[in-house]
Write a structure and sequence with these properties.
The structure is a homotetramer of 119-residue chains. The model of chain A has no long low-confidence stretch (mean pLDDT 89). Chain A is mainly beta and 119 residues long. Chain A is globular and about 40 Å long. In chain A, strands 1, 2, 3, 4, 5, 6, 7 and 8 form an eight-stranded antiparallel β-sheet that branches. Chains B and C meet through strand 2, strand 5, strand 6 and strand 7 of B and strand 1, strand 3, strand 6 and strand 7 of C.
Chain lengths: 119, 119, 119, 119
């Protein structure tokens, strides 16, 4: 089943500096979840945008056919405690969802949204 | 009133292993909420995608006419503590929303989003 | 400025039975936020769907021109602790967003999403 | 890469009066995150809508080319503890996401959604 679009954007992004709780599950993180429900691998390019400097990237990722990849922005070279945003470009249709777990305080907080999609 | 689309996707999915609080309301869970506002039953097929193995399913569900069904992914055979994603395919238009309650820590956290829709 | 659509749906709905904290701000609640940015009043009809019984409604609401209305589902006759869903139908374009504050435990949790839109 | 639309709306808005935790990161806030991934600056006009009075604005903001701007509604003249909503109008395509951090109680809560888009 092929579902999704080729271009996605996430306007929010911020990796808190602090964390509480068990590592790595409860480390503060920002995740881009990508689903490739189709039968060809997805070649993905991620660009990171900042408020005060030129964009970083593209970072190259592959999401294999019929697989999901939940990529923590923490694994890219993004400074902590800085506002950022991202675009995700794929050569085949994918679906992108954005999630943050914030464990700066003793109890974790969560948020999620399907990203903005465009062909 | 008929509203919605036939194909939906949720790129995020993760059922935490731990829970705190009253069972079953405050058990950590991941839910797919389906609304069938039309006058015919919706025959739904759910596929589950992973990062490192072939997809599971389809799981068959029926959402009766003029009814909502909030299905916990916990009720399907999905391993806990593993990243997953899902597609939801219906023979009549439905609306799909994704919610997680995470009670790994003493206080629960929530997140939700309307899923990605496609005809 | 006219923005929005006429038909909206929210597939998730659940008003927790318990609350902690200052009333009414921190009472557990489920809200439908409606924005009418246009110059004519919006006549709105809300239907409530359940998992095991016929829908309730329509409930009639007016959102005046150039106004927002954040309506707590708690103010309608919806039983607590039961899954529900809703459709929102307006005679002029509006924008609808769904929010829950859950204060069942000592610390409150939040979630939000733009609802599903259709003309 | 040009991505996004020119008109956006956020139906939810509420700046809690109280906060806990380190200032300014953990001050209760409501944010509009804007991404301008294109090569021309975005001239943005923000209108704020209330439940019981005429709208406020437009507030003028510029999001430079290839930059993101995470603007706290707290920085505009919006009364705390009051329901509001907003529209965001740009002369070039942008992507808009809405986030709230609520630290009224000891542990913070988060929510986010991509805003409603229209050309």
């Amino acid at each position: 089943m092929e579902i999704g679009k080729n271009n996605w954007a996430i306007a929010e992004g911020y990796i808190p500096k602090e964390s509480h709780g068990k590592f790595p599950e409860l480390e503060s993180h920002e995740t881009v979840c990508m689903l490739n429900a189709g039968d060809s691998p997805a070649n993905v390019e991620i660009m990171i945008y900042f408020s005060d400097r030129e964009p970083l990237g593209p970072f190259h990722e592959v999401v294999e056919a019929r697989r999901t990849k939940h990529l923590r922005f923490n694994s890219l070279e993004i400074p902590k405690g800085k506002d950022f945003a991202s675009t995700i470009k794929s050569d085949v249709p994918i679906v992108v969802q954005h999630t943050r777990l914030d464990s700066r305080q003793a109890e974790n907080a969560l948020m999620t949204t399907i990203a903005y999609a465009q062909n």
